[in-house]
Amino acid sequence: GVNVVLDTNVLVSALKTHGGNCARLLDLVIEGDHVLCVDQRILDEYERVCRDPRLKLDPEIVGGLLEFLRARADRVVPRPLDAALPDHDDRPFIEVASHANAALVTGNKKHFPSRACGAVRVFNPAEFVEELR
Length: 133
Hints:
Layout: E1 3-6, H1 8-16, H2 21-30, E2 35-38, H3 40-50, H4 59-72, E3 74-75, H5 91-99, E4 103-105, H6 114-117, E5 122-123, H7 125-132
Helix pairs in contact: 1-2, 2-7, 3-4
């Protein structure tokens, strides 16, 4: 399998859209085919966003997933990078992906311009599913 970092929007989409590319990616992580890489900042963001009542996600499913990720995801402590990203909140994702030599999967590639991402390969969910074939 490969190391992968999932942007929060991919996780939310996986929880909302069963059978879509995001859900398939999450299934591959849960089944142990690929290693999800995170740091504490990413876990905190997953929790904050997925528990936002406006998203209307099932709290039990969210709780189970977060517990699974805390137990099974590969936690790294990345070096800070001097990445010029449009949104500062996206920095942990690129830092973890860089540190773990992981692919970054996001529903919003324009948040991760290639000049800011260095050697990190950035995919949208459909591209990554295709890449795995």
